[in-house]
């Protein structure tokens, strides 16, 4: 008799054959290869040598810190636009795994199945929260997908119902740093603040530009009693 674990493994292998992994940066089928050889040289150039972001480059108010994996250029920018513009959000799983590696997680691919070899020795966060969408009925966003994978890798829950957008804002694109900050000022709120009080939170977004969105999300979480908030993004850019 096949065990439930065996059935699950067979299902995972079948899924890998029917829906093979693809590079989130170029769309090439990866199969069992961990990294796309075609994109690796450019990604090495775009990878931030020091993931930790400087408060001098971004507004990190209400945050204990922030980190970002890549510069928002070239194939990284194309990947974000592809996922957000065409709805190819399944690529976010691959990127979420890469972000998890910043937290000392290591992985390998074995017959199309992701095997986590190591996880952080210490649970650094109590929960992972993605930046909420502009519309409450559109939770399937790039930030949310990244948060789900990251939370799974870190072994902590992802919470998508606590932090919410309490007023409509204009698009941030095309605005100056001051205009961006004004646009999202006090735009976020927290449901059930008692669930946030005293918690260490990992706040997730796709791209950081000025830090206006992340710092204002953190402001709402701090007001609800969060102990500390650290922000992480897939890519980093600036208005300069």
UniProtKB/TrEMBL annotation:
Domain Phosphoribosyltransferase positions: 144-235
Pfam families reported in the protein's UniProt record: Pribosyltran
InterPro entries assigned: ComF/GntX_DNA_util-trans, PRTase-like, PRTase_dom
Domain of life: Bacteria
Assigned protein family: Belongs to the ComF/GntX family.
PANTHER family: DNA UTILIZATION PROTEIN YHGH
Protein name: ComF family protein
Organism of origin: Candidatus Allofournierella pullistercoris
UniProt lineage: Bacteria, Bacillati, Bacillota, Clostridia, Eubacteriales
